[in-house]
């Protein structure tokens, strides 16, 4: 028996498909006490699936940082609701202390992708539920590789080779409370990314979609470009491509931002408290090409 076979035999991890037909739920893993074989299997599953869910894991913030750090280098979030002790992760919450929100509030409500303004694409998002409302506050994720595959051939032909324009300044303007100096704002360059990219999960073609940073498409009138983005998002968020994560406290949800598009659904903030930790990771093979300037603000 090879060492590899022994290692895989030692894992307690089992998986089951998520109802959407893409992504996996990991069962049988005790994250805080996981041995190296289980962690190695966890890494592999996260590399090979667009969405991964693990439920019922009691983690403190430091353990969330540790788990996230296995999947890539964690991007700084010091402008987007950093955790006071672990600024590598953000707090998403409607809770207030002394009249001030303790973290980022009401973010990501429109369909978008995190990390669209990096010069070299590649981002993994991890969320951990600390307090979760019993209704609303879902995370809704669509499979843009599956959506691409299902596009009519004429649309595939139309979008092949198109380059979308993404603006970091547009994101910062949306989060004006971040207090970025005007000269820093002016220095932010727009970046181009193909509308059709290769999914890092399995190499299939995937649509790279977002409303947040999207400015237009090279060589296309702006209204036409916006309409095309809207049309591709509308196509991709049909039920057949969508996984809706209904949160319970102690859930871990991880997705790859290069073959998905996602949004957060609203909830009754007067009635319920929500507290979620978020980590953004750059896959290790991209760390050397990530500039410091790319890591200073919102990635969506
Ligand atoms: Fe997001």
Describe it.
- 24% of the residues lie in helices and 26% in strands.
- It has helices spanning 3-9, 36-48, 61-69, 144-150, 153-159, 168-174, 182-187, 222-236, and strands at 14-17, 24-27, 51-54, 73-74, 90-93, 96-97, 100-101, 124-131, 139-143, 163-167, 190-194, 196-198, 205-207, 214-217, 242-245, 252-256, 260-264, 275-282.
- The strands form five sheets. Strands 1, 2, 3, 4, 5, 8, 16 and 18 form an eight-stranded mixed beta sheet that branches. It has a three-stranded antiparallel beta sheet with strand order 15-9-17.
- Residues 1-8 have low confidence and may be disordered.
- The structure holds fe (ii) ion.
- Fe (ii) ion binds next to loops.
End-to-end separation in angstroms reads 46 Å
Shape: globular
Our count of helices gives 8
Average pLDDT works out at: 90
**Ligands:** fe (ii) ion
CATH superfamily: Clavaminate synthase-like
The percent range for strand residues is 25-35%
Number of strands: 18
CATH topology: Double-stranded beta-helix
Largest sheet: 8 strands, mixed
SSE string: HEEHEHEEEEEEHHEHHEEEEHEEEE
**CATH C-level class:** Alpha Beta
From the alpha-carbon coordinates, what is the Rg to the nearest angstrom?
19 Å
Q: What structural category characterises the helix and strand content?
A: alpha+beta
Could you name the ranges where pLDDT drops below 50 across 5 or more consecutive residues?
1-8
Q: What is the name of the CATH architecture? A: 4-Layer Sandwich
């Amino acid at each position: 028996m090879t060492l590899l076979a022994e290692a895989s035999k030692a894992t307690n991890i089992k998986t089951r498909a998520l109802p959407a037909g893409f992504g996996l739920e990991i069962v049988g893993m005790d994250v805080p006490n996981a041995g190296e074989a289980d962690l190695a299997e966890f890494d592999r599953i996260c590399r090979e699936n667009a969405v991964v869910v693990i439920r019922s894991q009691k983690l403190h913030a430091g353990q969330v940082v540790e788990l996230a750090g296995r999947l890539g280098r964690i991007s700084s979030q010091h402008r987007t609701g950093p955790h006071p002790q672990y600024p590598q992760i953000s707090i998403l919450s409607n809770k207030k202390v002394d009249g001030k929100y303790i973290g980022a509030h009401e973010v990501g409500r429109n369909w978008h992708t995190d990390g669209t303004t990096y010069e070299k694409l590649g981002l993994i998002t991890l969320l951990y539920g600390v307090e979760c409302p019993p209704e609303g506050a879902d995370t809704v994720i669509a499979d843009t590789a599956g959506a691409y595959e299902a596009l009519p051939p004429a649309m595939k032909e139309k979008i092949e080779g198109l380059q979308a324009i993404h603006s970091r300044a547009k994101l910062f303007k949306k989060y004006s409370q971040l207090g970025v100096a005007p000269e820093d704002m002016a220095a932010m360059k727009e970046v181009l990314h193909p509308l059709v990219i290769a999914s890092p999960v399995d190499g299939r073609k995937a649509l790279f979609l977002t409303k947040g940073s999207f400015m237009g498409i090279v060589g296309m009138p702006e209204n036409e470009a916006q309409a095309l983005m809207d049309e591709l998002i509308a196509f991709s968020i049909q039920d057949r491509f969508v996984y809706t994560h209904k949160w319970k406290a102690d859930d871990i949800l991880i997705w790859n931002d290069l073959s998905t598009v996602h949004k957060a659904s609203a909830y009754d903030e007067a009635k319920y408290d929500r507290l979620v930790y978020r980590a953004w990771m750059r896959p290790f093979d991209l760390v050397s090409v990530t500039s410091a300037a790319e890591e200073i603000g919102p990635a969506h």
